[in-house]
């Protein structure tokens, strides 16, 4: 086991007990055609890119992989627990006002103010200076790196080594992060912005003297965690389009400094408001918006990805097979869920894996699955708790404060409970679900948002289960609130299915669910929910439906067309409810069967109109007309004949044995003449009574039902369980659909195997790796005796503010030659663990002996 884990060659971070799974097989995406195509679309010479998707979707991994194959700079505005990347940008926003020459104005006065123009210019200059210092520091270290590379001849692998040097900058110096230290030197020197501009210009000239960029290639500037500056200083900058955040000011500043070079930006974040970068202005015409991060949305891709981390003897065990099934049940969706759990598995040496998964789920969702797990000792519990402490629960701020996230989470929970699927068609307004991390883009162009991940849905269900919540799972008051987006009829119809399943689980008065017009006798009768299925002789027989965590397996059949409806009315389906809807967002009809105590049965059709919560006077009579069989099935006479074939059909409830019900929510506006006598008997909802019944539904049972649904649907793809409609009127999204990699995820690694020849293996020992492009043929073997720290880099003479940087920079970068030439690389593991290796026997970064 120890040898296997060590041979995975997974780097360790600043906290040496946490394996950095994101760096496993770094640089491998180039060997998978679809992953390479995805990278080519993001790192394109034809445009800059805004890469936007939810937290944990794999954006950072894509940036790393793209920069393994291309020269570029990796900057991040915020570092996570992995501590990867320099710390040079993360603190600038908080210290940008620390300038002795200029005055910072966080809130600009109105444009009519006489000082407006000067204050705005001062703010822009301070951004130019502060972030220019970070750019200058990066260019300076890059120049030294290129000098070291030139001594052995440039090769393709130098690009990845340069990325590794940026991700783990402490490997370049004994004194800490040189990028951050150098930019602090520039800041503390308090030099004029023109001095920084001149230094950057000269540095670029010197870089071009060392390195002749091949024609057609670009230098890529990757800005990660751009959601941070996209929300900062929203009133400190403005142009003809209005106020804008710090991010826009930084991009403009760097484009101005690098504009004459072949440079492309890739700006990644969870939220980058598109209104600040209007394409119609001309300035942002060559920027493309992408959400092409992919996800684990089918079990096979996740299984392939996970399998490469599992020791052969463990992979063949029954525990491993159970584990992978449960991982798909719970961790499908964004890549971070799976990768983070793998981190725990590795750290715990694959021991107590099922218990570890349960505790991982419980920690981040506050819900512990009831799946059977092995018994563990108190010592193991304590050790697992220590590992689990790396993670924290999902945040509820978006649910507490965001009405869009709240109502869409309610819809996702209800849809899973009733139809055993998530919601791949969520509200895109303000991209709130993505911004608040509950949903994620499932297309490539930031147009379609899904909320269907089991971990996120079970967390949301736990938040909703409090009956005092304004959006409690079983409370009708959810639909009585004002929402910034229209509520969907299908949402209310599925919610009603849950309510009716609970209310009619056993005999209950009709009046507890409906107010019947024209049928006083009906209101006094009791009925129960039944499902008809065919017996051995082919005759339909009723079976009682008891609503619980286990049954029915799926509550509602969503008819996607005439064939699906026909199958349900022929009693060929196992769901007691059927929902049919002509098109997305349109009115919906819910159908089911009830049985009286005397054995007579009847149909119930509840028609939910498109604007079922409309404050204006609802047209109950119109709803009843739409719920009539003749109106619903005018083109399907076969269904009309099936209705009357129901055994023991009651003749007193309405035409063809159908009780028609208006699904309008505003029942308080109903009166005795709301439904004309010619449409009676008919009914409206008794929401007051149903609301009281909803309070009696066990929320814990609903949570267990959700967990069972997640576990039962282990063979289905997330995307395959989309809601289907009666027609195909929605526009085709073929052009925006993601291409699936046969190798699986973009989150943490490739699946395809890198094949090496004997000569390549020799090169790998010194950090060279694959032969690379033709330029690698010029590579010269060199003992690297001339290191970067013995040189006297010229950053522009003795101009003010640069001399101190020149004197100290060489000493700080005393390891750059070893890293550049591969003699000390964070990408190369030791062949044997050092004596002070962590107890998990995962690789540490060490300096390798020269060959």
How is this structure best summarized?
The chain is α/β, with parallel strands linked by helices and about 850 residues long. Helices cover about 35% and strands about 10% of the residues.
Description of the molecule:
- This protein is of the alpha/beta class and about 850 residues long.
- The protein folds into three domains: about 1-295 and about 745-820, no CATH class; about 300-390, no CATH class; about 490-695, no CATH class.
- The chain has 30 helices and 20 strands.
- The strands form four sheets. Strands 11, 12, 13, 14, 15, 16, 17, 18, 19 and 20 form a ten-stranded mixed beta sheet that branches. It has a five-stranded parallel beta sheet with strand order 2-3-6-1-7, sandwiched between helices.
- A hairpin with a 6-residue loop joins strand 16 (about 575-580) and strand 17 (about 590-595).
- It starts with a helix and ends in a 31-residue tail after the last helix.
- Mean pLDDT is about 85; it is low at about 715-805 and about 825-850.
- The proportion of strand residues reads 5-15%
Question: Mind telling me the C-alpha Rg?
Answer: 32 Å
Instruction: Assign an overall shape.
Output: elongated
Distance between termini?
A: 29 Å
Count up the helices.
Answer: 30
The number of E-state strands comes to 20
Largest sheet: 10 strands, mixed
Mean pLDDT: 83
Region (Disordered): 714-851
Biased composition (Low complexity): 742-754
Biased composition (Basic residues): 841-851
């Amino acid at each position: 086991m120890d040898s296997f884990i060590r041979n995975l060659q997974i780097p360790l971070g600043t906290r040496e007990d946490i394996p950095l799974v994101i760096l496993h097989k770094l640089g491998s995406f180039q060997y998978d055609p679809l992953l390479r195509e995805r990278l080519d679309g993001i790192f394109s010479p034809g445009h800059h890119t805004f890469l936007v998707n939810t937290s944990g979707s794999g954006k950072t991994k894509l940036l790393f992989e793209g920069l393994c194959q291309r020269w570029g700079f990796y900057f991040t505005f915020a570092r996570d627990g992995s501590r990867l990347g320099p710390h040079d940008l993360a603190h600038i926003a908080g210290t940008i006002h620390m300038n002795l020459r200029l005055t910072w104005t966080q809130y600009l006065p109105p444009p009519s103010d006489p000082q407006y123009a000067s204050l705005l210019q001062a703010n822009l200059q301070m951004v130019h200076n502060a972030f220019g210092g970070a750019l200058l520091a990066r260019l300076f270290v890059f120049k030294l790196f290129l000098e070291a590379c030139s001594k052995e001849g440039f090769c393709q692998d130098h690009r990845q080594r340069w990325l590794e040097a940026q991700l783990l900058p402490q490997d370049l110096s004994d004194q800490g992060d040189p990028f951050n230290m150098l930019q602090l030197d520039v800041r503390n020197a308090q030099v004029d912005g023109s001095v920084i501009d001149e230094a950057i210009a000269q540095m670029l000239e010197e870089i071009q003297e060392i390195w002749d960029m091949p024609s057609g290639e670009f230098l890529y500037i990757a800005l990660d965690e751009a959601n941070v500056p996209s929300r900062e200083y929203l009133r400190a900058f403005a142009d003809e389009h209005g106020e804008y955040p710090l991010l826009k000011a930084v991009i403009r500043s760097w484009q101005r400094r690098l504009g004459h070079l072949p440079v492309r930006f890739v700006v990644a974040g969870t939220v980058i408001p598109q209104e600040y970068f209007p394409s119609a202005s001309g300035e942002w015409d060559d920027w493309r918006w992408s959400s092409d991060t992919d996800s684990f949305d089918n079990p096979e891709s996740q299984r392939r990805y996970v399998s490469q981390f599992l020791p052969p003897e463990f992979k063949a065990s029954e525990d491993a097979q159970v584990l992978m099934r449960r991982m798909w049940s719970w961790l499908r969706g964004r890549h971070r869920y799976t990768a983070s759990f793998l981190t725990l598995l590795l750290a715990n040496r694959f021991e107590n894996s099922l218990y570890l998964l349960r505790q991982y789920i419980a920690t981040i969702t506050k819900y512990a699955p009831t799946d059977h797990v092995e018994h563990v000792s108190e010592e193991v519990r304590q050790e697992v708790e220590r590992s689990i402490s790396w993670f924290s629960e999902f945040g509820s701020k978006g649910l507490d404060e965001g009405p869009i996230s709240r109502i869409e989470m309610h819809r996702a929970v209800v849809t899973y409970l009733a139809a055993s699927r998530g919601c791949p068609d969520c509200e895109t307004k303000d991209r709130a679900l993505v911004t608040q991390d509950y949903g994620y883009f499932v297309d490539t162009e930031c147009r379609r948002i899904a909320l269907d991940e089991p971990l996120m849905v079970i967390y949301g269900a736990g938040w909703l289960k409090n009956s005092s919540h304004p959006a409690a799972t079983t409370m009708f008051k959810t639909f009585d609130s004002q929402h910034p987006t229209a509520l969907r009829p299908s949402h209310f119809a599925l919610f009603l299915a849950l309510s009716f399943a609970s209310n009619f689980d056993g005999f209950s008065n009709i009046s507890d669910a409906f107010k019947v017009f024209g049928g006083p006798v009906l209101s006094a009768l009791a009925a129960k929910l039944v499902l008809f299925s065919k017996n051995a002789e082919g005759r339909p027989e009723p079976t009682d439906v008891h609503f619980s965590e286990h049954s029915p397996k799926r509550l509602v059949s969503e008819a996607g067309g005439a064939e699906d409806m026909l199958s349900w009315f022929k009693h060929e389906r196992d769901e007691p409810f059927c929902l049919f809807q002509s098109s997305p967002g349109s009115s919906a009809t819910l159908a089911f069967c009830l049985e009286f105590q005397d054995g007579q049965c009847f149909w119930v059709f509840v028609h939910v109109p498109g604007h079922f919560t409309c404050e204006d006077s609802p047209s109950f009579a119109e709803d009843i007309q739409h719920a009539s069989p003749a109106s619903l099935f005018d083109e399907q006479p076969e269904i009309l004949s099936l209705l009357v074939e129901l055994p023991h059909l009651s003749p007193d409830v309405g035409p063809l044995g159908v009780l028609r019900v208006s699904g309008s929510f505003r029942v308080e506006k109903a009166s005795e003449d709301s439904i004309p006598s010619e449409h009676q008997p008919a009914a409206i909802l008794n929401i007051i009574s149903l609301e009281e019944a909803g309070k009696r539904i066990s929320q814990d049972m609903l949570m267990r039902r959700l967990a069972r649904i997640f576990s039962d649907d282990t063979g289905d793809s997330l995307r395959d369980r989309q809601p289907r409609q009666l027609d195909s009127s929605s526009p085709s999204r073929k052009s925006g659909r993601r291409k699936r990699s046969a190798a699986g995820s973009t989150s943490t690694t490739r699946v395809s195997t890198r094949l090496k020849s004997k000569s390549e293996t020799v090169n790998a020992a010194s950090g060279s790796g694959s032969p690379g492009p033709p330029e690698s043929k010029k590579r010269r073997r060199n003992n690297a005796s001339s290191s970067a720290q013995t040189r006297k880099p010229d950053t522009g003479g003795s101009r003010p503010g640069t001399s101190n940087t020149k004197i100290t920079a060489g000493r700080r970068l005393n390891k750059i030659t070893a890293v550049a030439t591969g003699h000390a690389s964070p990408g190369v593991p030791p062949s044997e663990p050092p004596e002070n290796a962590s107890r998990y026997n995962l690789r540490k970064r060490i300096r390798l002996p020269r060959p």
